[in-house]
Give the backbone structure.
Amino acid sequence: MKKKKITILGGTGSIGRQTLEVLDLMPERFEINYITANNNIRALEEICNKYNPKGVVIADEKSYFDFKNKTTFKGEILFGSEGVNFAASSPENDLLLSALVGFAGVIPTLEAIKQGTVVALANKETLVSAGNIVMKAAKEHNVPILAVDSEHSAILQCLVGENFSSVEKIILTASGGPFRDTPLENFDEISIEEALKHPNWSMGSKITIDSATMMNKGFEVIEAHWLFDLSKEKIDVLIHPQSIIHSFVQFTDGSVKAQLGTPDMRIPISYALTYPERLKYDFPRLDLLKVARLDFQEPDLTRYPCLELAYKAMTLEGNAACVLNAANEICVDAFLNGKIKFTDIAKYIEIVLDKISHINIPYLDEIIASDSEARQLTGFLINN
């Protein structure tokens, strides 16, 4: 079997590291073409020593020079967004795994699509910010986009062998985060440390805060809209504290399919890497006797205003979701740096969503401009 070449964007992050764990289980199938990092050059050095990729890209300027001056790695060493785009568009790539954080994933994903490379997408902000543009490009170049998120992977698995016209709706599940039962009057006092303690999943800091606010689930609703071509009326969300059922599909005959599994991101990662094959792994098996019960409840939008804002952005369409994402990125960063309260995240996002000029059918340059404008306005509001 000829090895496929994979480029991993965000290789030192949580999803990137777990992707490498999965690749370790099938060394005969893949070799790494390029791998990117932001500033974790120690982890990148270890990856280079173990996997010997063709090249690496480092986004942070200081880290780039530090790595270049100290490394023993003999491959290509590229820098910044231009380097990321170069790696993503390499004609040697058979598969691109995009695990970048935020809007940074949009352009390299488009570059890979234009090259005809299959995309395994763990960067939901790409479709949130530029879903119409990305999906049009994927259709034009006949490129599959395989979701790595556990919820969208679950939907994909439930749809295998089904006639898509028989889908009545899909139901995305959410753990509810660490504040599912916290009294609302205590939300102003939520600390950074408390918000970073996700009950079920081990993730990076940004996505962990997004899960605590449930903006992450709002993003997943928008992503599901683009991936499965469904209106927001056909996408529901349920709180499911155990995170065992990853999503449901309800069909027109009343049947419901669900995909179950332990909260282990290696499962959806491996499915995306080998789709439509399903390989044998020794990942922990689900023991329903130990789980004992599966609970569900409707999300309370007074507790999770960010989820409501995501639905609002879907209703507005155009550049609204791009603005939503940009404002959220700035707000989450501000919260993590102690500049705003947890409850301020939704407050500032709503203001920005209402103030940025609306564009019904934005071109890529208008999406980029909307992203920049929303970031500047959010930063101004926070600092003033």
